[in-house]
Design goal:
The chain is mainly alpha-helical. Helices cover 62% and strands 8% of the residues. It has a three-stranded mixed sheet with strand order 3-5-4. A two-stranded antiparallel sheet has the order 1-2. A hairpin with a 3-residue loop joins strand 4 and strand 5. About 10% of the residues have low confidence. Bound molecules: zinc ion. Zinc ion binds next to helix 5 and helix 11.
């Protein structure tokens, strides 16, 4: 196709896609482009990706670790807006890499390696609330909508939902372990998204009765752990650690009253 025609075709394709999308306002007041796929499809993708992780990785047999993560997820998700609260599924994977993730459709995965850096329930809540912050701020939706613009909606949907539309495509996606990769579900967020997940997560943890200073301690431990030969993956996907710690510290100070009110109102999770 000659250059100008190609450009026109692309512009038309992009227009079509953008028309299917919507703008929304994120929890911190940022304008975002979302709606590239429906919430139902997004939840389905989350469930599919989570099922795949469970197939590929053994889960811990340590009942104490399972209880602690479940307890924190319950306490944090109880503070979510209506419609986001119920039915969160949790898995603790046997994996020494300190990492955690949350997915649309209410899924939380935590690696046992996180217990190397999170030394108490407040620190662990810091990670978990951050990941849940990504979900309720619709960052997965935003990432997919952006990817659709880049790759073409038909192609991407074909890959994502291949299992529904054709054996081959679905299998290829499953075999490569790549539903997560294709959707960018586990890719680092943009800097804006990371900051937003910090803000939303720290607010949530304080409202749930976890000490918001725990998020600061967690990040500090994460940096200490990274001084070894192999930095934790989570750190490399979450850039600018020093400046983030400063911001988390400032917000923690302003969130202490929120935390104290939550405790006074009887929200005193005992997960650790
Ligand atoms: Zn993040």
């Amino acid at each position: 196709m000659p250059g100008p025609l190609k450009t026109l075709a692309l512009a038309l394709a992009v227009t079509t896609i953008v028309a299917a999308c919507a703008t929304a306002t994120s929890p911190t007041g940022r304008q975002q482009y979302v709606g590239g796929v429906s919430q139902q499809e997004l939840n389905q993708l989350g469930a599919q990706a989570f099922a795949q992780q469970k197939q590929q990785k053994p889960q811990t047999r340590d009942a104490r670790q399972q209880r602690e993560v479940q307890c924190i997820v319950s306490a944090v998700t109880r503070q979510l807006p209506a419609g986001w609260q119920g039915g969160w599924e949790v898995a603790v994977f046997q994996d020494n890499e300190p990492n955690a993730f949350a997915l649309p459709g209410g899924k939380v995965g935590v690696n046992t390696g996180i217990f190397r850096v999170a030394q108490n329930q407040d620190q662990l809540a810091g990670v978990i609330a951050h990941e849940i912050g990504h979900v309720i701020s619709r960052h997965h939706d935003e990432r997919i909508t952006r990817q659709m613009g880049a790759q073409g909606a038909v192609q991407l949907l074909g890959v994502l939902l291949g299992s529904r539309y054709g054996e081959g495509a679905g299998n290829a996606a499953m075999q490569g372990g790549s539903v997560l990769a294709q959707t960018g579900f586990l890719l680092p967020g943009s800097r804006e998204q990371e900051t937003e997940a910090d803000v939303v997560g720290q607010q949530l943890m304080a409202e749930a009765g976890f000490d918001p200073r725990g998020a600061v301690a967690l990040w500090t431990n994460m940096i200490t752990a990274s001084s070894g030969s192999r930095p934790p993956q989570w750190l490399s996907t979450h850039p600018n650690p020093e400046s983030r710690i400063r911001e988390l510290q400032q917000r923690a100070a302003s969130l202490v009253p929120v935390y104290e009110r939550a405790r006074a109102a009887g929200r005193r999770p005992a997960c650790g």
